[in-house]
Amino acid sequence: MFTFNRKLVERVFLALIAILTGLALFPLFHIILTVVAKGLPVVLERGVTFFFGTFKEGGIGPAIAGTFILTFLSALIGVPIAFLVGLYAYEYPKSTIGRWTKVLLQIMIEFPTILVGVFVMQVVVVPMGTYSAIAGALALAIILTPYVAIYTHEAMREIPFTYREAGFSLGLTRAKVLFRVLAPMAKKGILTGVLIGLAKAAGETAPLLFTAGGLYESYPESVTKPIGAIPLLIYRLIQSPSPKDHAMAWGASLVLMTIFLAIFLPVRLSMKEVKM
């Protein structure tokens, strides 16, 4: 009797876990299916024009180009700094600066991104007198920095201390141990942080409202001029009362989701945990 009840309780518990897991994943799959169902007809109807045409031509080409430019520039600015910050937090965990660095990184992850946009507007946009790609990229670089830094710090901590000691025993300097021994061993964890940071930056809208400005009738020509982005375009389209604009917003959402999944999923799934 006791054995029967125990097996019954176990089955009920597993069923409950399965149901709760399904409920947790339901919003994600619902979003993906909804975006595909409403965005795919728009993309198929307009064809190549949707990807390369300007807004007047019924396309989002400038927004796609702007998203790639902003993401690239933000990575160029933020990733090296974040990598070095993560290394410092790992190398000097007990120092005052090291402890405060970890605290500030945690705060930055939860910090409202719209305030980042306001800050960059005051220090870059207002002095320049115009929205620009460089201002938008700087805002996105600030947003992705804590993700890359924290993942770098945690990836370095996963490396056994014996490898560090082995490097010093060979006469290597601290810098060489960090950059030539430990960092290459932690590259998968670091790359994961970079991908998550870039995905976060590529999907941001709030900071771009105050920095990028938006450009959809022509392709961007300079980093000192306004630039468009897919999330910013979607935000503006859904405020329009026109059903055509709403349809374009669904198509743009599908493109944005496809870009994110095409970059993140293959790389992330191909990563295997390194056994030490």
Could you please describe the fold and organization of this structure?
There is one protein chain. This protein has 276 residues and is mainly alpha-helical. The protein has helices spanning 2-46, 48-52, 61-91, 96-110, 113-128, 133-157, 161-169, 174-185, 187-202, 206-209, 230-237, 243-270. Helix 3 (61-91) packs antiparallel against helix 4 (96-110), helix 3 packs parallel to helix 6 (133-157) and helix 3 (61-91) crosses helix 9.
Count all strands and give the number.
0
Morphology call: globular
What number of structural domains do the residues give?
1
Q: Can you summarize the main beta sheet?
A: none
Tell me the fraction of residues in β-strands, as a range: under 5%
What name does the CATH topology carry?
MetI-like fold
- CATH architect. name: Orthogonal Bundle
Low-confidence stretches: none
Intertermini distance: 46 Å
Which CATH class is shown? Mainly Alpha
Class by helix and strand content? mainly alpha
The fourth-level CATH homologous superfamily is: MetI-like
Count of helix runs: 12
> What is the helix content?
over 70%
